[in-house]
Amino acid sequence: MRSFRASRLVGPIPAIGRTIETVTSHGKHLEFVWDDGITLHTYLRLSGAWHLYRHDERWRKSDDQMRVSLEVEDWVAVCFSAPIVETFRQFDRHRHPGFGRTGPDLCRRDANLDECVVAILDYRDPAAPVAEVLLDQQVANGIGNVFRSEVLWDVQLSPYALVGAIDVTDARAMVESAARLLRAHLNDGRQSTAVGAGSGMAVYGRNGQPCPRCSDTIQVKRFGAMNRLLYWCATCQARGDARIAPTPPAGMERPMDPHPAAAMYLSDLPWKRHAEDHEPHADTA
Prior knowledge:
This protein has helices at residues 113-121, 130-133, 144-154, 168-188, 260-267, 270-277; strands at residues 3-6, 20-26, 29-34, 38-43, 49-54, 66-71, 75-80, 84-89, 218-223, 228-233. The protein has 6 helices and 10 strands.
């Protein structure tokens, strides 16, 4: 290595003159390992990207977006806009408080699907909705925002289902569906979905259009910690929806409209949202 720049690096600086031995990617994580045990870890999320340039080649993004610039004899590798850029020594890897091994890469034919199923069933927060769990790369690697919507539609499970309430059958169905869709996408070179290769999205990006399975209207909502768009059919994906009251025993009057869309409408009323925002939460510290 001839030069190393990192504007927001957390951790030790790799020494000039050391040799880069390996470069590996795990989904949106990219790691460089030097011969002295230093590891550079970058997590790209939605905004980050690595570019490779010749020394005299003009960068396609501005210098103020640069997070890492790493030069060798003939090339310059530049990381732009990555939210996480950090280094650590390999033998101290377990000391990193936020680092965890990523789950199996579902794009690979040899991915251990059983490991993903166990990670879902033993998830650290049983109250987490499955739509968020599917994006956790420590559960499974590679699903992403588009395919989480397609997977949940494929297995007819509500994105609001709590991970602690689903059984092994649903957990396995989600993992197998995700693996199948991701591998079909790789093989076709285009986004293949639950409704067949090359036929377009089943629900993603189809807000207001009819569901391919039941013909009801596809819904969309910003969802989760990263506020990303989630698409689903409220009718054929009502199963497991934690917002819908269970069916009462025979002879008891239902307190509300049984249609799933009614539960979604009521949960989004301004005074309902306000009340939920002020509900006391158990101290988990």
